[in-house]
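In practice, a research group might receive sequence data for several interacting partners and want a quick structural hypothesis before committing to experiments. The following worked case mirrors that situation: the sequences arrive first, and a predicted assembly follows.
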Amino acid sequence: MKITEKELNTIHACRYCPMCRHACPSEFINYKESDTPRGRAMLLYSVYKGGKPFEESTIDAIYNCFLCGACKSWCEGQEIGGYDIPELIKFARRDIVEQGLAPQSVANIRNALLAYDNTFGIDKSLSYTASIQEKQANILYLLGEGVNYKHPEIARAFTQVLDSCGEEYTLLKDEPTSGKELDLLGYREEAKDKAGRLLKRIRATGCMTVVVSDPLLYDALRNDYPAWGTSFEGEVLHVSEYLLRLLQSGALRLKPNPGKVTLADSEFLGRLNKIYEAPREVIASVPGVEVVEMQWHHEYMQSAGEAAFTFDDRVFDRGKDLGEKISIKAEEAQADMIVVLSATAKQHISATTTLNVLDIAEFAYQNIDKKG
Amino acid sequence: MKTAKTSYMFDMLLFELRDIVGKDYVSVRDSDREVYSVDYFWLPEMCHDRQGRSNITRPMADFIVHPADAEEVSKILRIANNYKIPVTAWGGGSGSQGGALPVFGGIILDTKRMDTIYKIDELSMTVEVGTGIIHEILEGELKQRGFSTMHDPGSARCATVGGFIAHRGTGVLSTKYGKIEDMIVNMEVVLPTGDIIHTLTVPKTACGPDLNQIFIGAEGTMGIVTKITLTIHRLPEKREFRAFIFKDLETGLRVGQRLVSENLQPAVIRLYSENETKEVIKKVLGIEKTGAYMVYGFDGNSEMVDLQLKYAYAIAMSEEGEDLGAELGAQWWENRYKFFFPPYMYRLPQLFGTLDTVASYSNIQNVYNAMKDVVEKQYPMARFIGHFSHWFPWGAMLYGRFIIDNPPEDPHEAIYLHNSIWNDALRAAMAAGGVLNEHHGIGLKLSRLTPELYGNAFQLLRNIKTTLDPNSIMNPGKLGFGV
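A structural hypothesis for the assembly, expressed as tokens:
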């Protein structure tokens, strides 16, 4: 692919600049220089300006990136442009795919997405949405693959909250993939095709409010689809935003439950969509709860590996390494509980701590004041 | 021993290294070899930049090894001695002198896995830490507990603590808190032969020479420092700055000297030459003034800081400084790292270098003038700027820089021009009472000039090196030592 001016500008700015390396989670897995933003920019300079072909170890370095955006958050030149390494990496992945050089592990995930609509290769009949019946409603709740296939307890909690508030909602039977994962792996055209299919299903429900659990799916609807010319006409809210709306309207009331709760911010909700306060306000709505911050939070959060689906237990076993770092910080903050915003974060963090780890929907359900 | 990748001896060595640190922690992959061939020195960056349009190449390591502790470092060095393979330590790779470059191939020993914080002693006010920790991460952990090393360099986010020790690093608060060598209590070192030693538990003894000093600033030529105990300080109750414009550099230097000699204990003094005020301060801070920009700052107990500021203000005004106020002083502090980020830093295709040196107050103005004259008169295509960052009881540090916007395209010509400027400017500085470097180190960049700086005393350094490293495996080609 011909490199764009924007990507070339990032390469030129970052190829010899190590100033964000301390924040890059992928570096601290194997401690390799090639697994840093600087290292990746250097390698891509050799490809796009040095005339070198993509070789295997360079491709590995490109796919080892978690796309978490920590480098961009820490880039001091933000007023100039906040050099966008994740976008550069996504560009390089598309090029690798176009050249037919995607690693077998990546191709396997793509094949699973095409065949099963999820990265895990799990049959649709085993998903949470396999057994639901669609109905007429104003609100459509979309789960995302992590909730739909791995953590259905999150969906159960949120739908029970909706039920208790008297909300009319529907789910999509056999909820299809958004295409986001395909795009992150470098398969944009196939991602767009999946996006079109999902949008068609969404429009068929007639719902003009879509509430989403999965940060990747949320980001796809809010940012990717408009960029691809396939915007959804209605409003898109994250579960935490909708919970806050229910609280503010008085439809949802939470009972006292004293304790210290910390929030693991979401890379895709926070850095890309600036959703930081809604989940905190939901947590703080429980009387007696003290929201305690971990050392790194808001835009300087530690990555939970939301886009590390290539790194889960089946491939590289790295998600837990990231989760453990967050667990340590939560314990240092003397939290009793960690609230997360994605199924992936729940999976990665809960595997490494004895603290209770709940998705924001589970947290709300656990604290519903049923008497109210 | 140089081993071709196709030779079975390569596999034999690879096996031995993997046996020590584990398979995941040895790399011979092309991407790693490429990335470890470029640090923050202009030369390898330029060669990397011009790949594909010139025939110049960069030396690369054969093996990149990531040991977890001193024991593993020891085993690696014993193997390197057995086979006479060069070993070059790599921390954050942010050194500007080429000190971490594997110029004769061999092993890159990446220290970053040795990043454990072992102990924070709140009574003795020390922290014991692995030298591979990225400084910003250490500072983050200390800050949570209300402490800091007060070592605050532009490279804090990318450099390791070991890297600072290797080249005698400094930070913006050095005028009060000292350079890294002033913060060291004791250290664990793996000698080139593989022996693991510990220096005395505390440094201010009368028990003979301070062995720490053999390894501080030695750039990995005398051994690998694997663990260090550093002093820490409580975060200050107050830290406040004030900025001024003085009519010229000479006046600014006089003010800086008075702030120090009148014992006001400033944490920061930074004075920019007239042309750096015009070029850099305008670009980064947006301040458009004629003259020499100075910012100073004090920290500590609030009432004491107020008093220090009062007396410092009186000195500045007595030298007819134009007061820019506390806000513009704080603006400098808040933007202190910005100077080192793209697009504010100098970068390719420019040819540039930081001619930092240090001299007594009696000589520092002459050193500045000598360097400036050489660069501007002998190299009309270059411009020279400078600021004074670190102030001692006896003298100050000059952060001189030369910049050429349109250097020769041919890399060999560019290198010749680069080296010529360095040689001429530093020889002029040495003749005026300066030295080769103050806090970036010698590395590959200035190795050739080191014997000239030391004179007869260089033989003593060489003897120490030969005794510690009989096979000359440790970072060859640096600090004036050959292969």
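Before designing any experiment, note the following. Chain A touches chain B at residues 12-23, 27, 30-34, 36, 38-39, 42-43, 45-46, 49-52, 55-58, 60-61, 74-77, 80, 83, 295-296, 332 (CB under 8 Å). The first strand of chain A starts at residue 139 and ends at 142.
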